[in-house]
Every structure is written in C-alpha cells, then in structure tokens.
Amino acid sequence: MSLSAKEVWKRVLDEAARQLPEKVIRAWLEPTEAVALEGDRLLVAVPDEFAAKRNETNHGVLISRVAESVMGKPLTVVFKVQEDRQRRP
Length: 89
Fold this sequence. Notes:
The chain contains three helices and three strands, in the order H-H-E-E-H-E. With 89 residues, it is an alpha+beta fold. The protein starts with a helix and ends in an 8-residue tail after the last strand.
C-alpha cells in the first residue's frame, strides 16, 4: 500500500499528538501541510522561516522518529516555507 504525502503527514501528526502538548501541535504543526513525498523525504509546507526553524529545532528529532515508525523506514521530514502558506490561521 502506497501512502500519499498528506496521508503520511496525518499519521505522523496523529502520533506526535500523543507525545507533544496540544498547544504545540496547534501552534506549530497544525499550520503545516505535506506537499510531496519524494523517496525518503517528506516535504512539509510551513507559513514562514521562523516556523520552519522552530519545527526543525524543537520537534525535528521526534517528528523524524515518528515518521520512520509510520513508514517502516527512515524518512527525512523537510520543513519548507511555501508562499501561499505565508499567513498563519
């Protein structure tokens, strides 16, 4: 079974929600959107550079571990600023 980027990211977020405070999920991870799954990389759009750095620095290790668990193989999650996501909800 092949999962789309959005399906993988939803599973990652669901599992991360069990391990991170709800306010962290709402503030930093819910405003994201998976845009591509390319081999061993999951590209996730974020609203700005601050969010990208914050997610990588504070949640990157956990997110990578969860993503590997979801996929059953190593998966690098890359947070990228995407112009149409420049505004936070």
